[in-house]
């Protein structure tokens, strides 16, 4: 299948080979996409170059700290000069203080709340604004959410509230950008063992609950998230925008 042939896809948020963003990148490449990446830490940049070399894939890789508007502007200016046009963006970025991912949500500090919102939700708005300028022929933006944005999930706390803002932003961005044929959708992924997930207290219990309760009786992996992301990036989903698709083995449909 070459559903992404001829498309240039920017992936924001690969830290290492376990990252959901890397699972998406692998599937997007297999479906024919030309890839570009942004990274924040030097370590992530090194990891991306190493992974690309291992897979023998050539891609544009640029630095971008999503908390800094100048960094976002510089990154998209560089992407524009190197690639011209982009067709898709995968926003796979989130961060919160570890102390805010355990215990009671009511204890969240103002600083911790704003940090989570800034990196995990506002970054989609800023990235979409920058990406729009490189999407002259329309495009597709996909972000990664979690059930904790819809329900009060133990320990997910401040990140759940950020995911609620992220999913709402998907709808508002879809409304704004639709006239330019830029679509904005989210995937609500089941739990996957990654660097970011390690910060959530009791994460192993969540993985076990999935195996026990999800209709598919198992966890999902980044490749399965990559497949649905590829669908959302492709013209197969050309009539869809503002949607949140669950890739969670059906866990979200289950009652008590
Ligand atoms: P990850 O740690 O591999 O990826 C998170 C990425 O965010 C990293 O690449 C990190 O460098 C980047 N990031 C953090 N701060 C940044 C900043 N200031 N500027 C730019 N980038 C920054 O973890 P992941 O699980 O692959 O997370 C990717 C997305 O998937 C996140 O939005 C996460 O909430 C979401 N998600 C994860 C799970 C899961 O169980 N792992 C489930 C559902 C949704």
UniProtKB/TrEMBL annotation:
Its EC number is 1.3.1.9. Pathway: Lipid metabolism. It is an enzyme of class 1 (oxidoreductase). Keywords: Fatty acid biosynthesis, Fatty acid metabolism, Lipid biosynthesis, Lipid metabolism, NAD, Oxidoreductase. It catalyses: a 2,3-saturated acyl-[ACP] + NAD(+) = a (2E)-enoyl-[ACP] + NADH + H(+). Pfam families: adh_short_C2 (PF13561). One of its GO terms (molecular function) is oxidoreductase activity. Gene3D superfamilies: Enoyl acyl carrier protein reductase, NAD(P)-binding Rossmann-like Domain. Belongs to the short-chain dehydrogenases/reductases (SDR) family. FabI subfamily. This is Enoyl-[acyl-carrier-protein] reductase [NADH]. It comes from Alicyclobacillus fodiniaquatilis. The gene is fabI.
């Amino acid at each position: 299948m070459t559903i992404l042939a001829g498309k240039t896809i920017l992936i924001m948020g690969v830290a290492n080979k376990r990252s959901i963003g890397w699972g998406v990148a692998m599937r997007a490449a297999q479906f024919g996409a030309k890839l570009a990446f942004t990274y924040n830490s030097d370590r992530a940049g090194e990891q991306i170059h190493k992974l690309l070399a291992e897979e023998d894939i050539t891609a544009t890789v640029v630095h971008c700290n999503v908390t800094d508007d100048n960094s976002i502007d510089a990154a998209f200016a560089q992407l524009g000069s190197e690639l011209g046009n982009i067709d898709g963006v995968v926003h796979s970025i989130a961060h919160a203080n570890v102390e805010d991912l355990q215990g009671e949500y009511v204890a969240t500090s103002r600083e911790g709340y704003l940090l989570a919102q800034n990196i995990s939700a506002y970054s989609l708005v800023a990235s979409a604004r920058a990406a729009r300028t490189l999407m002259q022929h329309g495009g597709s933006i996909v972000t990664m959410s979690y059930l904790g944005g819809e329900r009060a999930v133990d320990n997910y706390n401040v990140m759940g509230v950020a995911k609620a803002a992220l999913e709402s932003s998907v709808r508002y961005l879809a409304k704004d950008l639709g006239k330019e044929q830029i679509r904005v959708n989210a995937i609500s992924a089941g739990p996957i063992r990654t660097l970011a997930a390690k910060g959530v207290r009791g994460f192993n219990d969540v993985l076990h609950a999935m195996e026990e309760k999800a209709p598919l009786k198992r966890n999902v992996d980044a490749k399965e998230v990559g497949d649905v992301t590829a669908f959302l990036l492709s013209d197969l989903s050309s009539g869809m925008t503002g949607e949140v698709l669950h890739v969670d083995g059906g866990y979200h449909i289950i009652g008590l």
